[in-house]
Design brief:
Layout lengths: L3 E4 L5 H12 L3 E6 L6 H6 L2 E4 L6 H15 L4 E4 L4 E3 L7 H29 L2 E6 L12 H21 L4 E8 L12 E3 L5 H17 L7 H13 L12 E4 L1 H25 L8
Parallel strand pairs: 1-2, 1-4, 2-3, 4-6, 5-8, 6-7, 7-9
Helix pairs in contact: 1-7, 3-4, 4-5
Family: Belongs to the short-chain dehydrogenases/reductases (SDR) family.
Organism: Aspergillus homomorphus (strain CBS 101889)
GO molecular function: oxidoreductase activity
Length: about 280
């Protein structure tokens, strides 16, 4: 059955690929981006397009979502994909820089979701897909702000899923590893160079690694989106499987998440006795 997708951040990367593949599978797509001119290729494929900046006010986003609902009469799947990457040591980051990171990666998806939830509740159906990152599990020097934003979207998605499970609304957190998108391009990333000697070596090594990997990442975004669409629609390799709620994408993401869980369990076991001696004494 054909469904209607509303997708943010469609000018490039995973958002563009979500739109392209959803259309290819016979679904209807409302593709959005800050600059609607960058969506011309998707319009040629049959997508409807809207200008949407996720850092707009809640009122503006409500109006944009209302306009989206008039195009096909409904929306079945929301994909919160728009993202921005801020690199810099914690001491070097400004409040304004961190605010932009969280506005784009956290507050924006939350606001778009809030705008669409009344529609989903009225239909007792809907799917919300939030694009997270393995960086919610494994971070690096100079990546604290981005990792914090992706950790926030992880737990926002988990809470949302618990709140809406009885309403017919599903939430899916997708946590990709490294994929060959434009996320690390100059247009989508900011590197804050340090002037503090103590941070130069660790941040320089981290910045160089991320800059050098741009365009050479191991992951194929076509395959990432294919897997996600299979989960959403219960098709191909996802057929007959239970709804996962969260989906790691890429062997690097699987390994990073597994290693983090193993280290966390080992730490809990090591400190269990000490950590547990905190109950109040019986009265």
């Amino acid at each position: 059955m054909s469904q209607v997708y509303l997708i943010t951040g469609c000018s490039s990367g995973l958002g563009h690929e979500f739109a392209r593949q959803a259309l290819q599978r016979g679904h209807k797509v409302i593709a959005t981006a800050r600059d609607i001119a960058k969506l011309a290729s998707l319009r040629e494929l049959g997508a409807a397009t809207l200008a949407l900046d996720v850092i707009s006010s809640q009122e503006e986003l409500n109006q944009t979502v209302a306009a989206a609902l008039t195009i096909y009469g409904s929306v079945d799947v929301l994909v919160n994909n728009a993202g921005y990457t801020l690199f810099g040591a914690v001491e070097d980051l400004s409040y304004e820089g961190c605010l932009r990171e969280f506005q784009t990666n956290v507050f924006g998806p939350m606001s778009v979701t809030r705008a669409l939830l009344p529609h989903f509740r009225g239909r007792n159906a809907g799917t919300i897909v939030n694009v997270g990152s393995l960086c919610a599990w494994e971070t690096y020097p100079g990546v604290g702000a981005y990792s914090a934003s992706k950790a926030a979207i992880r737990y926002f998605t988990e809470a949302l899923a618990q709140e809406t499970a009885h309403t017919g609304i599903r939430a899916l957190l997708v946590e990709p590893g490294q994929f060959r998108t434009e996320l690390l391009s100059p247009q989508n990333s900011t590197f804050v160079e340090t002037s503090i000697p103590e941070y130069r070596e660790v941040t320089a090594a981290s910045f160089t690694a991320f800059r050098d990997v741009h365009g050479k990442q191991r992951g194929d975004p076509t395959k990432a989106v294919m897997c996600t669409l299979d989960v959403i629609h219960g098709e191909n390799g996802a057929s007959g499987r239970k709804w996962p709620g969260e989906l790691a994408l890429g062997p690097d993401a699987v390994e990073a998440i597994r290693n983090k869980c193993e280290r966390t369990l080992a730490l809990l076991n090591e400190w269990q006795g000490f950590s547990s001696e905190t109950d109040a004494e019986p009265s």
